[in-house]
Each structure stands twice: as structure tokens, then as C-alpha cells.
Specification:
With 298 residues, the protein is of the alpha+beta class. The chain has 3 domains: 4-97, Orthogonal Bundle (Arc Repressor Mutant, subunit A), CATH 1.10.10; 124-205, SH3 type barrels; 212-290, no CATH class. A 5-stranded antiparallel sheet has the order 6-5-4-3-7. It has a 4-stranded mixed sheet with strand order 9-8-11-10. Helix 2 crosses helix 4 and helix 3 (36-43) crosses helix 4 (47-60). The protein has helices at 4-12, 15-31, 36-43, 47-60, 88-97, 124-136, 208-211, 227-233, 247-256, and strands at 65-68, 73-76, 138-146, 150-163, 168-174, 179-184, 188-197, 213-220, 241-246, 259-260, 274-276.
Length: 298
Amino acid sequence: MVSKQAAEQLNRLTQAQRERLFYIEVKAFFCGDLTRADIERRFGVKPAASARDLSSYKSLAPNNLVYNASLRNYEPTDRFNPIFEHSADRVLAWFRDGYGDSLDLKIQRTVPCEAASDLVRPDLETLAVLTRSIAGRKQVKVNYLSLTSGSSTKTLSPLALADTGQRWHLRAYDCDRERFADFSITRIVKAKPLEIDIPLNQRIEADVQWARVVRLELVPHPGVEYPEAIEADYQMKDGMLVLDMRAPLVGYALRRWAVDCTLKHGLDPKQHHLYLKNPQTLYGVESAALAPGFAIPS
């Protein structure tokens, strides 16, 4: 737990200073070593500046780092207590992508880390058009490839980006079909910005499904022989993992995690390690059509 005094000192620093101290902490804590040269390479600063940053960090957390004279580096102590909040997702993304080590995306990664989710990569120019339109609340005209209807031209009111775990989607209002829907960004082969403001009834605030937050109660599938292994996988508390998620993402998540969403856990536990204990929470959720085994009772 960070002391009140340390928190106040952090708040007095500039954003640039906090970013450098954050890097010092992440590099030392998760990689086990840190040198002044690391800071100098990462931020392009002089030795005097890296020395000041290290001094600032040590004044905030005097028990976190120890200097190893033989290796000429700093190492985390057994009493290391982070002064910043860290999430596993952010740290793993740093290891996977190498960002934070250099602006050169081809640099060797700090820790070997690979992901099987790099098959689908949105086109950067298309992505830029969409994000600018979201930020500016402007409509776009796109050429879209659909599995059911093939190629078509659509006018969309882009609202938000969503990561389904397999691909990135655009949440948007489809002006032609007059409804809110999800669009796979990689199937948008061309996007043209329009100087047309998004009407109030097409904005994210009017999207009922997006505004709905669904509570999922996930438990080990009753057919699993050793449920404690599943509990460990998902860091369950009292045998359950509770998640709150926006309704448009729920179906994608349940399908990705292969959650048995039948009323009486009827799917094969060898393929479905998780079971949705409260399937009634999916009533009225449009994306629930993707949930394995889910059906509203007649």
C-alpha cells in the first residue's frame, strides 16, 4: 500500500516524470533488473536525468530497489511494494508487443512472449478514419463485406471500438437498416469520412444494448472431475468468477471461453470447462445468440 505522503509526492510530479518512474517500476519489478542506460535509451535522456529519476523513485519507495555493484544494476527487494497500480493485461501486452522499450516495433522483446491472436489485424488507415469519426461524432461511408449478404455500401454512425478476443469490432448505428449493430473492422475494406454530425438518436447514449451491463456468474462445469483446477485458472473466489460486461460483448466472450450456457449444463465438460450459473441474465441480450447452448425456454 502506497503511503499518503508518497501519493502526494507523485501528484506533484509532471506527467513525463510519472511516466519515467512508472517505467522504472515495471522494468525492475517484472524483469528483475534495471540500469540507468535502460531509462536513457527508453526516453532519450542524459545520464544526469536518469540519475535524478532513480533518486526520485528511491525517495518515494526506499525499500523497493537495491543496487547490485557487481552487475551494476538495480534489483527489486523482497519488500518490494509497487507505488503504481498495475494490471496483468497491461503488463502482458507490454511483454508481447515490446512497447515501452523503444519506438522501434522490431526491437527484441524484454521477455519472450507470444500470442495466438495476431491473425486479424485492422488496416491502419481504415482504423484512423473510424477513430477520428468516433472522436468527432461524424458519420462515415464504408464498403463492407458480410458473410450473409456479400459486399455493400453503408452509411454508419461509428460509436465505439470493442475487442471480442478474436477480432476488433466497430459498434455503430447502421443508417440504412436503422439499428445499432457490430461490424468487424477487418471487413471494412474502405472508409470515407463524412462531414455529417451523428444525430442524437444514433449516438452511444441511445444504444440500449451498449448501456446494458450484464452480470455473469461463471463456475466450473459440474461435469469436470477436478473443479479446483478450473478455479485456479480463473482465480475464482468461493468457486465462482463474477464479471460485469456490456451486453454486445457478452455473446462473444461466452463463445470464446466455451461457456456452457444451457439451463442444465448439458454440454460436454471436456470442451466446456465453465458453466454459466445464471443463464437467465442473458434474456434480452442480442449477442446471446452466440452463447454456446443458450436458448430461451418456450
